[in-house]
Design brief:
alpha+beta, 2 domains, 5-stranded antiparallel β-sheet, Alpha-Beta Plaits
Length: 242
């Protein structure tokens, strides 16, 4: 792990803006500049996404089949630390509906006298992230793909499965929060040494309720970051002596 150096440089570059605030005699004015402290980290999880699509006219039969697939998948991860199947989405859709109309000319479709027979097909879609420790590397990827194999019956037209491209992920971004807060404090103390002394500088953390932000740098490299604000409070001017 290492802190991005541009965070500190960006704070220094904006110091002149902070120090250049105006004031009124009746109250001090607070100027603020928003910054982010960033830390480069490596992914700790390897993910293989899996998607299963089932089609059928019997909703209850689809439910039972999907439950069986889910049970099979979870069984493959049972009692294995560092390996997990996380369900990410689930949905049902009515795929299509056709109608057979009456050929009788004596009935009116306007007043609802039409004979109809509906043919409804349901589609159930479920997705999982198959998770391994990133340190497992290519061997871990091979194992995850093996665990995803054979969940559906390829001979059945109404069952399909897709195994997506592998990706890396930060499993617990919140675990870096304290490190980021320590870095923010260090940045603030260092910046104050280079700012004019004719005012008060305050560190503010306005978004602590929000999660730690994560962005990808490619491969296993990610940035985790938190925003903070340095506020400059202009001093009240000394009133002219009479």
């Amino acid at each position: 792990m290492r802190f991005a150096s541009w965070s500190y440089l960006f704070v220094l570059s904006s110091a002149a803006v902070l120090a250049g605030g105006s004031y009124r005699e009746d109250f001090p004015v607070t100027n603020q500049a928003a910054h982010h402290v960033k830390m480069e980290v490596e992914a700790d999880q390897l993910i293989v996404p899996v998607r299963v699509v089932l089609r059928g006219k019997d909703r209850a039969a689809l439910d039972a089949r999907l439950d069986a697939i889910k049970a099979t998948l979870l069984k493959r991860f049972e009692n294995q630390d560092g390996w997990e199947a996380q369900e990410t989405s689930f949905s049902y859709t009515r795929v299509y509906q056709t109608y057979a109309r009456s050929s009788s000319g004596s009935k009116s479709t306007l007043f609802g006298d039409e004979d109809e027979k509906s043919d409804v097909t349901y589609e159930a879609t479920a997705s999982w992230d198959l998770v391994a420790l990133a340190e497992k590397g290519s061997k871990g990827l091979e194992i995850l793909r093996a665990k995803a194999d054979g969940l559906v019956n390829p001979k059945t037209e109404g069952e399909k499965q897709n195994v997506g491209d592998p990706k890396f992920r930060i499993g617990d971004a919140e675990g870096y929060r304290n490190d980021l807060l320590d870095a923010i404090k260090g940045d603030f103390e260092e910046v104050k040494k280079h700012l004019p002394g004719n005012g008060e500088y305050r560190l503010q953390l306005p978004d602590l309720s929000k999660p730690v932000n994560v962005s990808s740098l490619g491969g296993r490299r990610f940035l985790v970051e938190l925003p903070y604000t340095i506020a400059y409070i202009t001093p009240e001017p000394e009133k002219a002596k009479k």
